[in-house]
TrEMBL record:
Domain N-acetyltransferase intervals: 4-166
Signal peptide segment: none
The name this protein goes by in its record: GNAT family N-acetyltransferase
CDD domains: NAT_SF (cd04301)
Length: 174
């Protein structure tokens, strides 16, 4: 029987985190971004960025956690969450990325990642948490809503190849 747990990201996880990010973006956002944008995602470049984020975070309140699926014979990094202090609200933590590779979805990994992050947020003195989510990719908003998060009314759009991709900000109190 497989079990899941969350642990801090390690430098050696950077390649797997990058692979998960690219694979998940190509699946989850295939109707959101132009094909060439997703095709051009560079795993090697992402891995270097994740390695730096793990080894030398900007502050002691920036973290990368990974979800691990473990059986009696093997273990796999299957998802991750990256977070730090919000640029918008001084008392809030902000999720930079929360992804579980689709083939490992619906096994509780996202909930474990979110719960582990919330423990860190409370320990770090945050009173709330924020996350920007793509309006046209419903999985993350549904997941956050099921965990008690709600839109707070803030909106923005990312410019991707001259195409504006709308996002809504979700928030929760800790």
């Amino acid at each position: 029987m497989a079990q899941g747990h969350v642990r801090p990201g390690r430098p050696g996880d950077a390649g797997e985190i990058a692979r998960i990010q690219v694979a998940t973006w190509r699946t989850a956002y295939r109707r959101l971004f132009p094909r060439h944008v997703l095709a051009d995602l560079d795993e090697t470049e992402f891995a270097a960025t994740w390695r730096d984020s793990i080894m030398a975070p900007p502050t002691g309140r920036h973290r990368v956690l990974v979800a691990v699926e473990q059986s009696s014979t093997s273990s796999y990094v299957v998802g991750f969450i990256a977070f730090g202090p919000s640029d918008d609200l001084s008392t809030a933590a902000e999720i930079g990325e929360l992804l579980v590779e689709p083939r490992w979805g619906r096994r509780g990994h996202g909930s474990r990642l979110l719960a582990a992050a919330a423990d860190h947020w409370r320990d770090d003195g945050f009173t709330s948490a924020l996350a920007w989510v793509f309006d046209q990719a419903p999985a993350t908003p549904k997941f956050l809503a099921s965990a008690g998060w709600a839109p707070d009314g803030a909106r923005r759009s990312l410019d991707v190849e001259d195409m504006l991709v709308p996002q809504s900000r979700y928030a929760t109190l800790l």
